[in-house]
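Support request, please re-run this one:
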Amino acid sequence: MRYLIIILLLVVSLAFFSSCKLGLRAIMFDDGGVKADRRMEQIISAINDKDSEAVRSLFSKKTLDEADDIESEIHSLFDYLHGDIDSWERDGLSGGNTRRDGKITNINRFSIIVNTDKEIYKIYVIDYSIDTINPENEGVYMLEVYKSSYSGGWDYWSNRMHAGIRIVKDGNEQEVASIATERLEEIIKAIQNKDKDALIKMFSEKALSESLNLDENIKYLFDFFEGNVTEFAWDNQYRGAGGITRSPSKKVIRMPTLFFVSTDKQDYLVYFLNYPIDEFNPNNTGLYSLCIVKAEDNANVEIQTYPWYPWEGRVTVGVYNPGME
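Re-run finished. Output below.
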């Protein structure tokens, strides 16, 4: 009987310690999520209150030393996020530990989905939640902020490391606007000077090899476009399936662009698909498609229903000419 009691005690003890170990492992496993959620709440609270000092305090000393201008980046963050925050949630979690001489570095990488009453944003966080190897590195290293509608490409996270706050605009909006405007001005100059050679030089080798009746279509365009340009405006609400894609060593910019162009005789819609850079396929660098129509013929019409719009496989290679459809 005594041996039976001893055996039972041993079984109970083993079960108890096993459950403790499992519990400890569960706590260790969940610890990253707990720390990430805690950091998320701190970030949201500081942004919601527009508390510059609170945002600044999230970053490590190392980050503050390396950042170009953290105060300016914080103000840009507040300006970029529009509306009142309604809700937020963590999206994913990855990271790892480094141990050395009894010390530890823990890095957490996760995203926060932020819903405001005007927009949906994502904040990608790189956070050194513990760093006893390099204590000055403990804290947030990067906040990368962008709209959920962002359509550009992404490089590896390690290649995007930026000390402080990085705001990613769709297709790097300022860069896209500048390139698009420059291309439009070149197109208009060639049309108004009726310079066929200048226009042809803008097209990529790929477009020139695939386009049909290019000379005849350019002649149509020169006859169709009337007057001297008085003003133009980029439709920055129209993005198409565009953006900037980067790999560690290569970059491509795909730029579908729509402009409203007025002359002293007519208003036009000018659409073009441009690849100003394509390091993956250099033969694709340049214009691929150019479509110009009268605005009055397309008033109050959804862009997707334009006969020249590249929708569901309809793509004009070269210059659009409705008589050649």
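Residues 15-30, 301-314 have pLDDT under 50 and may be disordered. The chain has two domains: 32-167, 173-324.
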